[in-house]
């Protein structure tokens, strides 16, 4: 008789992973370019005003507004050009009454000037003077020191993802080296006698090991460092030794395959021989119901399903938040949003379904539809999926036009806790 497993609601399973497992938070300082797509390990606070000086937003002439107060078509005002400055050059001295400085975008406003006239609105004379035929109020066309931000302003929080905008701020404030969270190492082992190396030709009964590379990409996207432990046949001794090594060497251990109840499914035996503390071995979700989570002395061990769809979902739901937490990210879970179902799901399912889906927009309405064959064992539908459509388990199906929750894939902002409003069934 096969062991009866007790399925945990997804919310509870995620909660227990975060409660009972830990990945240490470590920080390091890395050269700037290595910090992009990493997570900041310190708050970024402006240590100077931006811009750091009053500057011209246009190519033109810096002048004293007072000089132009009476200027008009019938009363043109002539100003003497006493200098020329481009960005990076500072005009030495003070600009006096009746004088102007030719100034380019980004150059510091010369002392004495309080306005800039764009090149297009002045007449340049051949005798070194310009003529203006309208007044320029004080402060016209000036980008003021500190208008972007003031010294001392908190700008980006510790745990933020270093996207291009954050990179711009880091450079602005002189971060040659950037304090970032150390990427936790995640060991990945594929178990299965049917598995071929990626480079091997197909032979009868065998398939290529796609899960390991999928997980590696997911780990990278989450902010971790994948460590490849290859693939092994369904042999307890070999797999046990490999997992023991992984437990010594990496922060998080992942196996894929053999998580179910079959003759060659080794995860249950591995849990026993390793003396691991099992957190769950069944979750009330499809795919991914056979996901196993355990820890050995606190070190996380995930036995993800061999079915690619189930393996993918298990990694996104359980591994990703652990990685993100060790990076001190603010929102460690997939971002939740809402969309309108574009197809029917008439068959009720006792477990919550997480359907690989494509998000699209039509007349301002966001719609979701499956990205392909939605079987746990299908791999092709993963390629185009940009969301997981959440269909809570229960006794009813879902119809096109209904609003449903979705989890966005490959998105950096994340959700604090996307599970609250999702009803899940605990029926096995
Ligand atoms: N009697 C039952 N059978 C099954 C149950 C069950 O509850 N009772 N659960 C089903 C569910 S749900 C899933 S999901 C799968 C889980 O299977 P395992 O985690 O044990 O994985 P395997 O048996 O090793 O392989 C399943 C499937 O996936 C392919 N696979 C395995 N590894 C890889 C890899 N690295 N890359 C690509 N594909 C992989 C493998 O060839 C199999 O086709 O169990 C159901 N059965
Ligand atoms: O774990 Mo299985 O994926 O429910 O399909
Ligand atoms: Mg199996």
From TrEMBL:
Asked whether the keyword Magnesium is assigned, the reply is yes
**SUPFAM superfamilies on file:** MoeA C-terminal domain-like (SSF63867), MoeA N-terminal region -like (SSF63882), Molybdenum cofactor biosynthesis proteins (SSF53218)
UniProt keywords (A-Z) are: Magnesium, Metal-binding, Molybdenum, Molybdenum cofactor biosynthesis, Transferase
Q: In which pathway does it act?
A: Cofactor biosynthesis; molybdopterin biosynthesis
**One Pfam family, short name:** MoeA_N
UniProt-listed CDD domains: MoeA
Q: Output the Gene Ontology cellular-component terms.
A: cytosol
Q: Which family does it belong to?
A: Belongs to the MoeA family.
Q: What does this protein do?
A: Catalyzes the insertion of molybdate into adenylated molybdopterin with the concomitant release of AMP.
UniProt protein name: Molybdopterin molybdenumtransferase
Origin organism is: Shouchella clausii (strain KSM-K16) (Alkalihalobacillus clausii)
């Amino acid at each position: 008789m096969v062991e009866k497993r007790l399925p945990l609601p997804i919310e509870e399973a995620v909660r227990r992973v975060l409660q009972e497992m830990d990945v240490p938070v470590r920080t390091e300082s890395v050269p700037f370019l290595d910090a992009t797509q990493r997570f900041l390990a310190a708050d970024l606070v402006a240590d100077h005003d931006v811009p750091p000086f009053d500057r011209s937003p246009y190519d033109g002439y810096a002048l004293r507004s007072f000089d132009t107060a009476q200027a008009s078509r019938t009363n043109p005002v002539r100003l003497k050009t006493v200098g020329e400055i481009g960005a990076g050059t500072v005009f030495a001295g003070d600009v006096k009454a009746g004088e102007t400085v030719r100034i380019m975008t980004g150059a510091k406003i010369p002392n004495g000037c309080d306005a800039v006239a764009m090149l297009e609105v002045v007449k340049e004379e051949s005798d070194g003077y310009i003529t203006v035929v309208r007044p320029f109020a004080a402060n016209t066309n000036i980008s003021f020191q500190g208008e972007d931000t003031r010294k001392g302003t908190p700008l980006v929080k510790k745990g933020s993802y270093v996207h291009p905008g954050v990179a711009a701020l880091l450079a602005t404030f002189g971060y040659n080296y950037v304090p970032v969270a150390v990427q936790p190492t995640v060991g990945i082992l594929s178990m299965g006698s049917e598995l071929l190396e990626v480079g091997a030709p197909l032979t009868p009964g065998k398939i290529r090991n796609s899960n390991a590379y999928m997980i590696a990409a997911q780990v990278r996207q989450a902010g971790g460092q994948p460590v490849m432990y290859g693939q092994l046949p369904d042999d307890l001794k070999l797999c046990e030794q490999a997992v023991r090594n992984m437990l010594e060497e990496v922060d998080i251990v992942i196996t894929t395959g053999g998580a179910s109840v079959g003759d060659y499914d080794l995860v249950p035996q591995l849990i026993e021989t390793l003396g691991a503390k099992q957190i769950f071995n069944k979750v009330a979700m499809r795919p991914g119901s056979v996901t196993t989570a355990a820890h050995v002395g606190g070190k996380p061990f995930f036995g993800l399903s061999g079915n690619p769809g189930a393996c993918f979902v298990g990694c996104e739901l359980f591994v990703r938040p652990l990685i993100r937490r060790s990076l001190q990210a603010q929102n460690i879970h997939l971002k939740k949003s809402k969309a309108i179902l574009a197809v029917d799901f008439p068959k009720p399912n006792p477990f919550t379904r997480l359907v690989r889906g494509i998000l699209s927009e039509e007349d301002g309405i966001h719609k979701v539809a499956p990205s392909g064959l939605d079987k746990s064992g299908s791999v092709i539908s993963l390629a185009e999926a940009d969301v997981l459509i959440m269909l809570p388990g229960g006794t009813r199906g879902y119809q096109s036009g209904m609003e449903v929750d979705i989890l966005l894939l490959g998105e950096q902002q994340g959700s604090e806790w996307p599970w609250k409003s999702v009803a899940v069934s605990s029926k096995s």
